[in-house]
Amino acid sequence: xxxxxxxxxxxxxxxxxxxxxxxxxxxxxxxxxxxxxxxxxxxxxxxxxxxxxxxxxxxxxxxxxxxxxxxxxxxxxxxxxxxxxxxxxxxxxxxxxxxxxxxxxxxxxxxxxxxxxxxxxxxxxxxxxxxxxxxxxxxxxxxxxxxxxxxxxxxxxxxxxxxxxxxxxxxxxxxxxxxxxxxxxxxxxxxxxxxxxxxxxxxxxxxxxxxxxxxxxxxxxxxxxxxxxxxxxxxxxxxxxxxxxxxxxxxxxxxxxxxxxxxxxxxxxxxxxxxxxxxxxxxxxxxxxxxxxxxxxxxxxxxxxxxxxxxxxxxxxxxxxxxxxxxxxxxxxxxxxxxxxxxxxxxxxx
Amino acid sequence: xxxxxxxxxxxxxxxxxxxxxxxxxxxxxxxxxxxxxxxxxxxxxxxxxxxxxxxxxxxxxxxxxxxxxxxxxxxxxxxxxxxxxxxxxxxxxxxxxxxxxxxxxxxxxxxxxxxxxxxxxxxxxxxxxxxxxxxxxxxxxxxxxxxxxxxxxxxxxxxxxxxxxxxxxxxxxxxxxxxxxxxxxxxxxxxxxxxxxxxxxxxxxxxxxxxxxxxxxxxxxxxxxxxxxxxxxxxxxxxxxxxxxxxxxxxxxxxxxxxxxxxxxxxxxxxxxxxxxxxxxxxxxxxxxxxxxxxxxxxxxxxxxxxxxxxxxxxxxxxxxxxxxxxxxxxxxxxxxxxxxxxxxxxxxxxxxxxxxxxxxxxxxxxxxxxxxxxxxxxxxxxxxxxxxxxxxxxxxxxxxxxxxxxxxxxxxxxxxxxxxxxx
Lengths: 350, 424
Known about the structure:
- The complex is a heterodimer.
- By secondary structure, chain A is of the alpha+beta class.
- Chain A is built from 11 helices and 12 strands.
- Chain A has helices at about 1-10, 15-50, 70-75, 105, 165-170, 190-200, 210-250, 250-260, 265-305, 310-335, 345-350; strands at about 55-60, 65, 80-90, 95-100, 115, 125-130, 140, 145-150, 160, 175, 180, 200-205.
- In chain A, the strands form 2 sheets. In chain A, strands 1, 3, 4, 5, 6, 7, 8, 9, 11 and 12 form a 10-stranded mixed beta sheet that branches.
- In chain A, α1 (about 1-10) packs across α9 (about 265-305).
- By secondary structure, chain B is α+β, with helices and mostly antiparallel strands.
- Helices cover about 50% and strands about 20% of the residues of chain B.
- In chain B, a hairpin with a 2-residue loop joins β11 and β12.
- At the A-B interface, α2, β1, β3, β4 and β12 of A face α2, β2, β3, α5 and α9 of B.
């Protein structure tokens, strides 16, 4: 009987309910999108900041080299590290700075290098800085130019060779001039301190501009996203709840008939509340699916990788709980009218 | 008749009308707040990213040899071209001068093993509009931290003094190696400087000593000359169009290219304003910043799109619902012989007015919300264009009309008798 009332009510006022359902679904979709973006945005943004390169730099405290083991130690601590060895060579009677780098390790830290040609150089190959004006494929100082690099920095005037080749030119072993390190956010200071303790010969520094700007921008974006999400959610909830209260008001006549037939107020209120609850749960289900889909599309088009809504069950349950609460509370407020409805007056048509 | 109809309709059920207006207003508030923040946030983040340091470096075309990696470089000195100091303020004289947030000339020298850089700390210059402004290395690198002591006083104050020691700032690495302390007198090139502060940057400046440019120029016998100019400019993320070669563009394309604040077109303009120089992008800063701005813009754009869609649908469904509740009214009017077009016009005006009222209120509230977000996040009000509220109100009218149209048409097509008999 109870179920039949609810189901019949759904069938009878199909169009009206489709609208209420649509409004709820939109709210649930929006909530899911905002939640999904909010939880993954920070990591995505920090990934983008990786293109600024190292946030820690290790240089010799005295002398001209630091142990190569520092790079390995940094990697063990969970950071990305790339050693560089700077030396010099004679090209046509001019001294040119030569930098040794490990193509594989340096790649994530130097994604801002613009290389024409191939940046993965092997033994006997090299990259030439743009301002050296060397043609691609030319042989110079015992290496073949495989690529021209342009950075706007010191590299533009250097010859970049594989690390081992530079070590041979400089006649050093297990030593680097600079180790660039990218520590994960939040562990920068910790890793810096650990490395500084382990390698007293090295001066491990925080690149202030990179670290500060990253945390500044990420925090500010996160805060504005949080505020905007809250505003959107509060307003959506207001809209949805007014919709629910209205649904009760519209049906004064039905309520009048039910009361005239001897229905208890509590029972009638129960009908309405369970109808809204059913609507809320189904709408959340649809809204959640639509939201996950949209968040995926947004993620893919902005960051080139979908936003996985983490702990999907949790997001679903929290969205569902909010929706249910909104539906039940606002219908509940609406149903308080039931007690005031006089069947005779309503049915007479006033 | 039209006005009376609307007035009557409002008077008869003020509560209901108010509810719709409020709902439309809420939808519009979301849209305005989102759009307001979205349109402004790119500029805000752009300003924050300027803390990464110079994105354009200007050198003389026959520039000197350097060695180093990334943000660490050691400039060999005394080899080649300089830029005349008098030319430096011309950096501001370009079309995009207002986008240049800071610039500082740099002169390199080496006293023994200590790299010394002559810079402007806070230097007055004559801006293109004739007023005096100040700029310097601190404006180029806002993220640099003085760990002890303070930045030197404005340039000129020390130099103009009668033999008073000029102030210098030492990088933390240089200070440790030489056992320097804040406030101590240090000797560079035979002249004593007062160490005003210790600087922590993490890049090459941490190994150097920064001294006032004019002092270093006279000490090293290169008055009026600088090695390079570091420029920090607010730029637009680079896209495919920006990467085109300006030499192969049609005049129209070139005009559009140079009238967009791409980092590369600003660099190009600087080269034209300072003949004989080479303005190069610092890829690490310029490219990364472009990438981040692109992502932030895309992210905000898509969220805004989602919010706009949802608020549009909310307004639409609301007007549709309220229209459905008024079938009876429509039926009575039809039964009394009103033409469909008349009924349509009557309801159309009413719905449009509700939309306008809701839209305007919502736009105002939304502007307030956008300001609130700006103040609480960026400690500065977000500037919302005055056009936005009108656009939003107009959109609210359109969406309301669209929402009302379908149910109204449906009712008009039904037999009035049927509707009235069912008592809906």
